[in-house]
Amino acid sequence: MSSANSIFNIERHFRDKEGVKYNLMAFGFTFIGYLMGVMWLFSSHFILNILGVLLTAEALIISAYLLHEFSHYSIFKTPQMNALWGNIMSWMNGSCYGTFEEIRNKHMRHHIDRADVVSFDMRRFIENLPTFFKAIVKALEWLYIPVAEMMMHFFVIYLPFVTPKWHHKRTRTAVTLLIRISIFMLIFIASPKAWFLYALAYCIMLTALRFADTYQHTYDVFMVDDASKKDKTFEDDGKLRDEAYEQANTYSNLASIHHPWVNLLFLNFPYHNAHHVKPIVPWYQLPRFHRELFGQDAVATPVIPMLYCLKSFHKHRLARLESEGYGVIESKAGGADNFVGVVGVSFLTAI
């Protein structure tokens, strides 16, 4: 009896008892939603196809933000268990070409160095493209096809084969690519429509993640080799990035202020200032921690509601690709029309 209790006592794996039910609900939604959503992509009924796309996209979004939680070790007690489930989520959302450790290390640099530290400068790459190819990229982005994010994922696959310092990753990358290509070829053979709808769901995920990332920081973007691990500065500008700098350049782009449950669509990731104050706080505690830090008055908090960002996201969707600056933020409690934002800083793309 005691042995059975030990086997099924899953609480012992989690960091705290409060989180068991919430995390199990998130895991359940992710796996069941993903399986059901993909199944509906194969349906002959148009309505089920639409629901399948939306459900698959949302399951992918939650899998990405669960991966973010695992990278902070905020779900399970042990690093090994967080890494195991982080790898599972990365295979679901397509970030598995980089290892969990690489994803975690890149994201920790974001917190420690208080900057967007990247392995590949997407803005510079787009700026230097030949005119014809740049026009294609901009045409696709104008149509809301997240080609810049797709290219970031492509370079995670491509660079190990052409960059000597990453040659040690070639075998793992090739095997991963072969497995995933085989899976998606089988889907295409079974149903080209389902394959296309899955691609659409994946594009929705990339767009949703990008929309959240775009307006959460006005950090400088640096290549990973420029970052100094010793004093939280960068050799090229010497700017001290302390806690005051961090909060002054961090924004909570809440999906809803008055209906907190809406933020669960992003697994509470929009409570970004609270997350940066104490990154180990798990997703289900962030709304409460946000209220403790900032109270209920949205005007007095570093909040830019997502609805305020929609116009800016549309208006600057091409300028953002090459912009060296973030534009103008009229106030943290409102104006975002001229907030250009940033591109190419997804935590899913780590080399």
Task: Itemize the secondary structure elements and their pairings.
Elements: H1 2-8, H2 18-41, H3 46-71, H4 79-93, H5 100-113, E1 116-118, H6 122-127, H7 131-142, H8 147-162, H9 170-190, H10 192-214, E2 221-223, H11 243-248, H12 272-277, H13 286-294, H14 306-315
Parallel strand pairs: 1-2
Helix pairs in contact: 2-3, 3-4, 3-10, 9-10
Q: Mind explaining what this structure looks like?
A:
- The structure is a single chain.
- By secondary structure, the chain is mainly α.
- The chain has a domain at 1-93.
- It has 14 helices and two strands.
- The model is unreliable at 1-7 and 228-233 (pLDDT under 50).
In terms of structural class, how would the helical and strand content be classed? mainly alpha
Shape: globular
Show unreliable segments: 1-7, 228-233
Q: Tell me about the biggest sheet?
A: 2 strands, parallel
Helical stretch tally: 14
Pattern of helices and strands: HHHHHEHHHHHEHHHH
Strand content: under 5%
Number of strands: 2
Helix content: 55-70%
What integer value in Å does the Rg equal? Answer: 20 Å
Through-space gap between termini: 47 Å
Mean pLDDT: 89
Strand order of the largest sheet: 1-2
Provide tags for this entry.
351 residues; 14 helices; disordered N terminus; mainly alpha; two-stranded parallel ribbon
Quick structural overview:
This protein is an all-alpha fold. It has helices spanning 2-8, 18-41, 46-71, 79-93, 100-113, 122-127, 131-142, 147-162, 170-190, 192-214, 243-248, 272-277, 286-294, 306-315; strands at residues 116-118, 221-223.
